[in-house]
Amino acid sequence: MKLETAKSLLLIILISTSLVLTFGMWNYRPEYEPLSDVDSVDKEDLGGDIMQASDVMQPTDVVFKMNGQYFGYTDPVDSTQFFEEMQQWELTNIRSSDIEEDRESGAEVEIIFPTDVPLSVFDNILNTNSSLTDITNFYTDRFYIDLEEDEESLHVQFVSSEGDQIVEADIPSMSNFDRLLTIFGELDEEEYEEQHLMTETDKDIYIPTGQKTLTSYSYTFDTIPAGDIRNIMFSNPNLVNVSESESGSIMYRTDNRQINIAGHGMRFIDVAERNNEPTDKSVLQQSLEDINDHAGFTDDYRLENFTDDSVSYRLFHFQYPVINNSNPDLSLIYQQWQNDQLSEYNRSLISLETVANTSSTKLRDSGEVMESIWQNDNVEDIQDIQIAYHLTIESDDNGEDYVLLEPDWYQRINNNWSPVPEQNTDAQQNTEGGN
User: Which among 313, 334, 349 is the end of a domain?
Assistant: First the structure.
């Protein structure tokens, strides 16, 4: 056989073998599926709303002050609507100013938030024509709108919580001036109620005068499945260890992450080594992006507390805060961050569904509430006083669980809410203890 013929024959054999092997690879099906397939688990979400800073940062009080008297909206829904309207008013000529010793005004609106935040946060909730981001180390929980009748304009002041800085702005719109002027002329109407100023507390607190009657509610509720939480918090749920206790609690765990689910709530912690690189995002922005990524705002949640590395959101019901104080707390979403990494995430897993029952509850008269507060030795430590709904999980005659929401007066001390004590309760206890 000639050498050229042998080479051609060998080439034909090699090509044929290659085609057979390629065809076999295309049609090969392994006997076993891969041990872990990240794509095999769909991305879960909790079905909540997508929230922005302007949605969660809502004032706890809007107070109209005129000639030494204080007024607020009788219905908190009107207060929310006023703030939403005010968010469209353009703030111009933003500037830093010298501290004023006396900032009394003939007609002024004080808008109060539940926590100190950096001034830059107001860029995201107000209509500013220039940025507040450049003003650093400035924290505040309120701002003021002065009605300048001589100039027929509105003047805005942000005062730092330390009282050592002030930032001013103008609202030059004549229509906005007329709108506020109209409100001040209507403060004696039923839409508004007089408020009492408490100056003995940590900061100025306003309490509506008189007595209120609110509705108590019983709700059916849904509980977010534990498996959904596992799929959200772990990038590869197939590699997660799971254990259950006799009480019904569930723990999911990997080397660095752990979730404990019990009592209709969850606690997530991540102890992985942290990235030391700083991030340009605030903890509020990081938190909103993270919770929105799994649609975690399943009810009306609003900003409650803010620090450089943590943020919490409180559940609201018909414009009133909800208090639970159990462990886990079913009225809060709490997150802690280290740079750009989530290290702790606690939240309720319940979502209110339908009203099962209602009843009327007459609250204590505000005068009685103030008398009770003045009896406290730590009155100067009180950060806020609000009417709030107390949330508990109850069982009916058929053993079915439901959520009970009952209104009461609450006080906030060291960022913790507790019921305002009944009048003379402490005095009676001291007397009984001395006998």
Answer: 349
pLDDT in tens, 356-368: 999 999 999 999 9
Least confident of 32-46, 54-68, 234-248, 265-279: 32-46
d(CA 221, CA 355): 9
194 vs 79: CA distance, rounded Å: 14
Domain span holding position 374: 353-434
Is residue 388 packed enough to be buried (19+ CB in 10 Å), middle (13-18) or exposed (0-12)?
buried
Asked if residues 116 and 306 have their Cβ atoms less than 8 Å apart, the reply is yes
Q: What is each CA distance from 358 to 75, 217, 354, 406, in whole angstroms?
A: 19, 5, 11, 10
Q: Give the span between the Cα atoms of 243 and 253, in whole angstroms.
A: 9
Q: Is 317 contained in some domain?
A: yes
Span 276-324, pLDDT tens digits: 777 778 899 999 999 999 999 999 999 999 999 999 999 999 999 999 9
Which segments of 185-278 does DSSP mark as H helices, in order?
226-233
What is the model's pTM? 0.86
